[in-house]
Amino acid sequence: MATAISAIPNFDVTQLKNPHNIRVGIVTAQWNNDITGPMEQGALAVLEKAGLIPENIRAASVPGSYELPVAARWMLESGCDAVVCIGCLIKGDTPHFEFISESVAKGLMDLNLQSGKPVIFAVITTLTHEQALDRAGGKLGNKGAEGAEAALHMVQLKQQLLP
Ligand code: RBF
After folding, report:
1. Pocket of ligand 1 (CB under 6 A)
2. Per-residue pLDDT tens over the stretch 49-87
3. Which CATH number fits domain 22-161: 3.40.50.960, 3.40.50.12500, 3.30.390.10, 3.20.20.70?
4. What atom in ligand 1 is closest to the CA of residue 62?
5. 83, 121, 130, 146: most buried by Cβ count inside 10 Å?
6. Which of 163, 78, 149 is closest to 118 using CA atoms?
7. Cβ-proximal residues to 144 (8 Å cutoff; 6+ apart), any chain
8. Is the dihedral of CA 52, 148, 146, 26 positive or negative?
9. Beta bridge partners of 126
10. Taking the model in full, what pTM does it have?
């Protein structure tokens, strides 16, 4: 079962080598900020627990999830080793949900491959507000915290594969 802080099996954020040298950006969409706010807090808590120094944690907000890819690119251009992109899309009565979620997923994946740096998809896509709450520190964990773990895991993997 997912937990608030450690959801990736066999990956312990407290065992990172040289956490002082790792720079991570967090970009948070303000749409549904009752959901994305706790996700951002969860991500920050993981990065602090891992031993990153506060100056190396850069947080920014964007209006909505659609704006996450370009802001993530700016984070990488500013020197971050990884970016955690946090958003919450709740399906409504129009096709907007599909347009935005597909664009964001593709935009972030393209940025991963173009940059060679981890760009983490911590965007929850749900049918209801309650399902979103469950994933923002509720009974299904905190997907922002898990996104930060994924970012650190990938930074470590890159260090191992491309020393
Ligand atoms: N942004 C989100 O992050 N989550 C949403 O659920 C969401 N729903 C939207 C629904 C509509 C009808 C519109 C027009 C925008 C929505 N947005 C949402 C904002 C979107 O990501 C973006 O910020 C704006 O479209 C401006 O480019």
Report:
1. 29, 31-32, 63-67, 87-90, 96, 100
2. 999 999 999 999 999 999 999 999 999 999 999 999 999
3. 3.40.50.960
4. 23
5. 83
6. 149
7. 36, 38, 39, 40, 41, 42, 43, 84, 86, 122, 136
8. positive
9. 90
10. 0.95
